UniProtKB/TrEMBL annotation:
Transmembrane intervals: none
Family (UniProt): Belongs to the D-isomer specific 2-hydroxyacid dehydrogenase family.
InterPro entries: D-2-hydroxyacid_DH, D-isomer_DH_CS, D-isomer_DH_NAD-bd, NAD(P)-bd_dom_sf
Keywords (A to Z) from UniProt: NAD, Oxidoreductase
Domain D-isomer specific 2-hydroxyacid dehydrogenase NAD-binding: 141-326
Organism: Lucifera butyrica
Pfam families attached to this UniProt entry: 2-Hacid_dh_C (PF02826)
GO molecular function: NAD binding; oxidoreductase activity, acting on the CH-OH group of donors, NAD or NADP as acceptor
Protein's name according to its UniProt entry: D-isomer specific 2-hydroxyacid dehydrogenases signature 3
Length: 372
């Protein structure tokens, strides 16, 4: 990049990643440049819901906030677009006639049509790994909460039943003994997916003395040297004591875990999902929990978010529910923006494509069109 070129920037923040933090990331990225910046916010209106009614003209955008028209109206002369959850559709990209680069401070940039950007030769930067630690932490926390019956035990004490049952002439231990938990050493922890988050979960589960089993047909054997690789999902589900899902929300993964796989689980096994709700057949999981086919589950994601007040999950005592907070950490805004800045800086400061998500595909297209 030529620093004599004046850069026009559009920054779109939201309630999770503040515009001010994105502005700081841009200022850090564009040191030495002259630039002009326009900013606005989008409202975070159910970003993870799959039941949106509006048609934004681009089916590849599955999780987003706001409407693309707000970007289209501002993007005419923009060279650098920086967003979090704002929808960067193919129409937005087509309207950005002078776009050079797009930065999105998400790991799975499902709010950006990366293919459309690549076809236009627009470089794309994301924030890989921003949620690795908090998501893997929550996965292990769920494992401990489920295996040790901590939520139920907490409710038992707060409701005064511990005092009532034990502080009497003939103590009653019936409910107390139901809180006895498993020991985690040598328990089999099954992982569906071995990306950045799955790998970190495996390390933490192994730290508890658990035997980690992994199903991921795309991972090289060498990367699984410390763990047991299984050849199929049925094998993983049949043999695990805990199962945790860490695969992306791709079309081919929708409903991949359904009644057949859940039916293979041990009645003493637990199921954890902190990935995406549409990966699971939610109705089949509810049925398995209602009928006590499995010991329990912990869910941070759902097919429809927020979880409707009519959901049967709310009436079950063998499931832990949290409001899609796995990636939420106290510094989520500043941390995400800083990570994106680190990815964009080499491009703008050193003309390096090392941290660009789609640079290889763009260069391949350039070489193909030039006949090389």
């Amino acid at each position: 990049m030529n620093k004599s070129q004046k850069i026009k920037v559009l920054v779109v923040g939201d309630e999770w990643v503040k515009t001010n933090d994105l502005v700081k990331a841009v200022e850090q990225t564009l040191q030495g440049y002259q630039y002009e910046m326009d900013c606005f916010d989008v409202i975070m209106d159910k970003p993870m819901s799959r039941d949106r009614k509006e048609d934004i003209g681009d089916d590849s955008i599955t999780e987003y906030c706001g409407h693309p028209q707000a970007l289209i109206e501002r993007i005419d002369d923009v060279n650098l677009l920086v967003v979090h959850t704002a929808p960067v559709t193919k129409q937005v990209i087509e309207a950005g006639k002078k776009l050079i680069a797009i930065g999105c401070c998400r790991s799975d940039a499902v709010s950006v049509n990366i293919q459309a950007a690549t076809e236009k030769g627009i470089y794309f930067f994301n924030a890989p790994g921003r949620s690795v630690e908090p998501v893997s932490d929550l996965t292990i926390a769920f494992t401990l909460l489920l295996g040790r019956n901590i939520i139920k035990a907490d409710q038992y004490v707060k409701a005064g039943r511990w005092d009532r049952d034990i502080n009497r002439e003939n103590p009653i231990w019936d409910e107390f003994v139901t809180f006895r938990g498993v020991t985690f050493k040598n328990k089999k922890f099954g992982l569906v997916g071995f990306g950045k988050i799955g790998k970190r979960v495996a390390e933490k589960a192994a730290g508890l003395g658990m035997k980690v089993m992994v199903y991921d047909p795309f991972v090289e054997e060498a990367l699984l040297a410390k763990y047991t690789k299984v050849s199929s999902l049925p094998e993983l589900f049949a043999n695990s004591d805990f199962i945790s899902v860490h695969i992306p929300p791709l079309p081919e993964n929708k409903g991949v875990i359904g009644r057949e796989l859940l039916g293979r689980m041990k009645p003493t096994a637990y199921f954890i999902n902190v990935a995406r709700g549409e990966i699971i057949d939610e109705a089949a999981l509810i049925e398995a929990l209602q009928q006590k086919q499995i010991a329990g589950a912990a869910l941070d994601v759902y097919y429809t978010e927020p979880l409707p007040s009519t959901s049967p999950l709310l009436k079950l005592d063998n499931v832990i529910l949290t409001p899609h907070l796995a990636g939420q950490r106290v510094d989520v805004s500043a941390g995400s923006a800083e990570l994106l800045a680190e990815r964009m800086q080499p491009f703008f400061q050193e003309s390096s494509l090392q941290t660009c998500f789609n640079s290889k595909e763009i260069e391949k297209r350039k070489n193909s069109s030039s006949g090389r």
